[in-house]
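Work Package 3 (structural annotation) set out to generate three-dimensional models for the target panel prioritized at the project kickoff. During this period the team completed the workflow that converts sequence records into discrete structure tokens, so that structures can be stored uniformly alongside our sequence database. As a representative example, we reproduce one entry of 118 residues exactly as it appears in the project archive.
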Amino acid sequence: MSRDIQLKERWEKVVTFLSDKFADGEVLDLDAIIYLIGVQELGKINSEFKKDEKVNLMHIAICKLLEPYGYYEFEFFDKEGWPHYKVIKELPALKAGEQSVLMKEAIVNYFLEKEIIN
């Protein structure tokens, strides 16, 4: 099976799993999935977040997702329990489609590592 086909199939598993669990089957988009990963990583599942906190949650998720690729490294949790990451290397200049593929691949790997999909 080609790498692209396998990624597409696994991505669909992630989308279906999260959409069924958090959106009553309505299909979640990439940004919504990144947000949910941020909430998971923060660990404050039943909290309400302000707009700037939602942006920070997405940043947390992106850092966590791209950490295995060597772009970020976890540094510490602040006194409110928010994780902080430092930049290890700058992300390459990617076109929008390439960014999307990178994030989908990172999300699939995240869910494989957590053994939520196979």
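Strands lie at 72-77, 83-87.
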